[in-house]
Amino acid sequence: MAIAPDDHFIRMKEVRQRTGLSRATIYRKIGEGSFPPNRKLGGQAVAWLNSEVQSWLDAQIEAEPAKEPWVPPPPPPRRIAEKKAPPLVPNDKGAEAAAKIAGVVGVTIRDGEVP
Questions:
Q1: What distances in angstroms separate CA 34 from CA 3, 21, 60, one per listed residue?
Q2: SS3 (DSSP) at 63
């Protein structure tokens, strides 16, 4: 089999990077016949034809069912805190403390007067 002039061999490291598969999975798929076989370069060196690996990747993408685009979930509803009026206490110290909490300082409440 002749190799096209623009084709080249790629080694295991690049095959793993491009496919995202582990070494064991690649060899298992070769045994099953669902991945392009490697070519012996001499000794223990093997490589894959770039065009065959790319064709396999293209086939995987085409075989994938169409998916709905991912949409982020809506943000949780925001709770808007209502400012509560400070509790009114019937004694002088309680009224003074409530006024300080409310941000009113130096206000005198006379007896019998409703704040």
A1: 21, 13, 11
A2: helix
Q: Cα–Cα distance between 78 and 92 in angstroms, integer? A: 38
Total Cβ atoms within 10 A of residue 36: 18
Rounded Cα gap, residues 50 and 28, in angstroms: 19
Query: pLDDT by residue (tens digit) across 1-34?
Result: 677 777 899 999 999 999 999 999 999 999 999 9
Report the number of secondary-structure helices (H) and strands (E) in the chain. 4, 3
The Cβ-side half-sphere exposure at 98, using a 13 Å CA radius, reads: 15
Q: How far is Cα 10 from Cα 36, in angstroms, rounded to an integer?
A: 12
Q: Are 97 and 89 in contact (CB under 8 A)?
A: yes
Give the DSSP letter of residue 92: H
User: What global pTM score does this model have?
Assistant: 0.54
